[in-house]
Amino acid sequence: MLEIRWHSRAGQGAVTGAKGLADVVSTTGKHVQAFAFYGSAKRGAAMTAYNRVDDQVIMNHEKFMAPDYVLVIDPALVYVADFTAFEKPDTVYIITTHMSTEELIASQPKLQGKKVYTVDCIKISQETIGKAIPNTPMLGALMKVSGMYEMDFFKENMIRVLKKLPQKIIDANMIAIQRAYDEVK
Amino acid sequence: MADTMELRDIEVWDGNMAASHALRQVQVDVVAAYPITPSTPIVENYAGFAANAYVDGEFVMTESEHGAMSCCIGASAAGGRVATATSSQGFALMVETLYSASGMRLPIILNVVNRAIGAPLNVNGDHSDMYMGRDSGWIQLDAYNPQHAYDLNFIAFKVAEDHDVRLPAMVHQDGFMTSHTAQGVHTMTDEQGFNFVGEFKPMNDMLDLDHPVTHGVQTEEDWHFEHKARQQHALMTAVIPKIEAAFDAFEALTGRRYNLVETHQMDDAEMAVICMGTSVETAMEVVNELRANGIKAGVVGIRVFRPWPMEQLAAVLKDVKAIGTLDRSSPHGTMGMLFNEISGSLFNTDTKAVLTNYIYGLGGRDLTKAHLVGIFNDLKANMDAGKPTTPLQQYIGLRGPKLSFF
């Protein structure tokens, strides 16, 4: 069982990102689950979304999760959200920030000694999609760090997932995914 | 003619999306709706299908849930295939009209995305609304995941519209835990889905002007009792065989098997938990882990909540020594519903199992695997002692001091 927790603000697309990832993974014959906690959340409120991936049918519906990956798509949440909750010794963090990994760890000591990767999904999405929607670039970074799928396969499937959007937006998302894949450190 | 939608064999859908596609595929004539969280996307998606020509029927926006069900009642009496969706306070507002629908023998399908009932206001999943409907005369089917939410809609239409049944049916799924959780859902083609249910066959429809009928009459003590008795007779005798036949036909078509009572590892189980919704599947996973340690635990899930499968439950529970009934609704002043119903189902049998009750998950509070392991530890102690070693009703997952009664 692979488990992923997203930390986001409502409106940044974590739910869409989690569901999009689940859709892509499902095409490979694996079983998936994507869900979120948002209550009656307002845009901008801190929230979490979740993915489970397994070779077996996923029967577990508990919300509790000790994640293998933590994806933080809003830069401020590493200071205000409990993003290390229920971490495991080998939990991997991929964090959106304009800082270098070293600068980030210096500013947030909870990350010391952890497997931490950084990428500026906010900047990438602003420069490509034209809006701060950091969800798809984070998936590009996850593909790089996890080695889950080849980039061509992933992008091909993301085009299908995003098919209801205008072509220009789909193209911009593909550039954003590739940039995050290339830029994550 | 509605456009056909091409679906992949497995779509990654949440429970709401699954239910909306089922409504689309059976080609409902009238969906009258007033949206409420967490069931909103069912009718929102359906309205999208209607606007994009995937649906021939009417989509009617009403002023309230009371109005939505009232409109459904009118459309069903007129002679159409009818469905809607609701949750929580919206369900509560519908209650008056739910009794009208069942009393008038109108086969309306209501998707209930189970949610807590305020106060305090809470949009998350528990079973308060489902429990509120249990004396309303509707058939109630319970989904544990998005696949079930899809499949059980087809079962519901097929059973409810059968002329030997003619009763409305609810398809329940857990708010957020199913309704907003995306999982792989095996789909049917539009043609397969529609053909499983078939063309709607009206009965005593008001639009059959050559055969005028009256719906919604007044009966006082002269006939009211006989009328309610016939309604109960249909619910108690006609429905279960039709559901079993529909489950068989559905298995033949899709390979997916449903049962009145779902069981997991019950053949040699010494102790069991009984629950509904997503908790059934989480409990199954816990039981698999306990079995690996040699603990003979099992799970019983209620699939058909109304009519209550009393004989089937008595049969699956006859050899267990300890039973935990898990209710996701505050019983306010008594034991949980499942405790009481299971007690009633076992009282005249030879079963001497120790029976206890757990209240959990109100307002969406997580039921963790660790909670379930704790419950099975209690049941083991009860089994070994041959009597309750805990209070009869305990609250699980509650913060602060432990709470228990009796």
Explain this structure.
The complex is a heterodimer of chains A (185) and B (406). Chain A is an alpha/beta fold. Chain A has one domain (2-183): Pyruvate-ferredoxin Oxidoreductase, domain 3. Chain A has helices spanning 14-26, 77-80, 101-107, 121-128, 135-146, 151-161, 167-183; strands at 2-9, 31-37, 46-54, 69-72, 92-96, 115-119. Chain A has a six-stranded mixed β-sheet with strand order 2-3-1-4-5-6, with helices on both faces. Chain A is globular. In chain A, 47% of the residues are buried. By secondary structure, chain B is of the alpha/beta class. Chain B has two domains: 10-254, Thiamin diphosphate (ThDP)-binding fold, Pyr/PP domains (Rossmann fold, 3-Layer(aba) Sandwich), CATH 3.40.50; 261-405, Rossmann fold. Chain B has helices at residues 15-25, 40-51, 65-78, 88-103, 128-132, 146-160, 190-197, 224-254, 278-292, 310-316, 337-346, 369-385, and strands spanning 10-13, 30-33, 58-61, 82-86, 109-114, 139-142, 169-174, 182-186, 261-264, 271-275, 297-302, 304-306, 322-327, 354-360, 393-396, 404-405. In chain B, β13, α11 (337-346) and β14 (354-360) form a beta-alpha-beta unit. The radius of gyration of chain B is 21 Å and the shape is globular.
